[in-house]
Amino acid sequence: MRGQMMDQPLLISSLLDHAERYHSDTEIVSRSIEGPIHRYTWGDAARRARQLANALTDLGVVEGETVGTLAWNGYRHLEAYYAVSGMGAICHTVNPRLFAEQIAYIVNHGEDVVLMFDLTFLAMVEQLAPTLNTVRHFVLMTDRDHMPRETSIDNLLCYEDLVRRSSDRYEWPVLNENAASSLCYTSGTTGNPKGVLYSHRSTVLHAFASSLPDSLHISAEGCVLPVVPMFHVNAWGLPYSCAMNGAKLVLPGAKMDGISLYELIENEHVTLAAGVPTVWLMLLQHCERNHLKMHSLKRVIVGGSAAPESMIDQLAEHGAELRQLWGMTELSPCGTTSTPKFKHRASDAQTLRQLHTRQGRAIFGVDLRIVDDMGRPLPHDGVAFGNLQVRGPWVLSQYFRRERDSAHTEDGWFNTGDVVTVDKDGYMKITDRTKDVIKSGGEWISSIELENILVGHPAVAEAAAIGVPHPKWDERPLMVVVLKPGQTATRDELLDFYKGKIASWWTPNDIVFVAELPHTATGKLQKMKLRELFADYKWSD
Ligand code: ADP
Questions:
Q1: Residue 330 annotated to the active site
Q2: Residue 303 alpha carbon, nearest atom of ligand 1
Q3: Final residue of a domain: which of 239, 255, 271?
């Protein structure tokens, strides 16, 4: 027998409608790209999102088309999130930290028809524009006063002009909840970045689940600072969960350094902040150096890379609790959090610290299991380690415009590429990664790309890139190189070889020369073995 409850679609526009109706005067504070702090409310954001939806409709954008953004965390980007998805188009957040060819690939692959971008990226977009085949309109996300006098982009549109000229009367269409809402690319281990296409349903369910007290704990009583960029898995869904709950939102713009973040946290009374470990290290160092205390912060969500244990105590000195979040672009991204249970209430500090060094237990909606190399399930005993597989309503079922591949098992689980243990209480801990990408400051560096370049050097026979723990950036690339017989090359010469071929922050920190690299029986490079061999490697800088 069918239940008799209403079949109302879960839509992103309803989050904004709710925020406007019940939290209309709750503030959204942004550090603008132009400089000053910008303040308005959820009510203003909703009104301007409708204006933008009208403007995009006038530009000819229709349901199912893709609108790209190259933008920091700010109020205009927030409006774009809601206007684009709300009208039935797909909000494609492009990561500006990628290098030019990858950005061009992503925009072309996503078939973006409009590209909206912050002032910071004007020169980059001018350079890329001729290679962006599907973009019909370029929109600079600024006001008339900041529009460039001259630009090579034909008919560059001004965001504020578009919004100002458009009516704020707009009825959000009642879409199918499974319709695509947004798109985000993730760098794979091989080849081009892969797109993850979210739906309205997955986004709203993820907003519910990530708001829970045991997840990110989002509430109308709180003030939330997403330092994780809005081009990085929708800033962990915070623009949606904050609207759902009517939380005050503080958007740091392009400034994520310790001084700027400290200022925002103190001035805006931020209670919850979220981002990668590198950001918190910078903030904590700034506080320590200048004998500063944070007064309002209750919780810091640390994810993207493992949180160092010392950070738990450092944050505690400011009265803030560290909560680790494990997630992936393919998971929208929230999967597990390290929240303690009732039975841990009497635990000593060391036990709790241990708990927070784990990636955490599953949020309801995320099923997880560990399997061995043959795909056989392993026990959750805290000892057995295997490949982590997940499934759930906000987990990717297939990469955008790609065939189903080995990322998914035949019985429908997603292979995360993380090697983990799960203890009897359900707490997962990452022990290794089967994927070989290197994670620096929360962003991926492709090891394959680094290797391919270096083997192009006439003296290099074989090269392997591995991520080695780094005190500031979590991991930095180290190249392990075998030279051709009879050939010579120096460290500096090989590092120089990268100049102009990759984004400068991708450049490896060091090169070591070895006689041979470890291989499997089938001749595959054994990255795990190599990582083990260099586990104690110490950076000289
Ligand atoms: P994110 O936005 O969370 O960085 P990505 O898709 O770029 O998402 O990266 C996902 C990968 O990052 C995971 O598979 C895992 O290897 C790593 N990761 C994410 N969160 C954590 C964490 N808390 N601790 C350790 N590694 C993590």
A1: yes
A2: 23
A3: 255
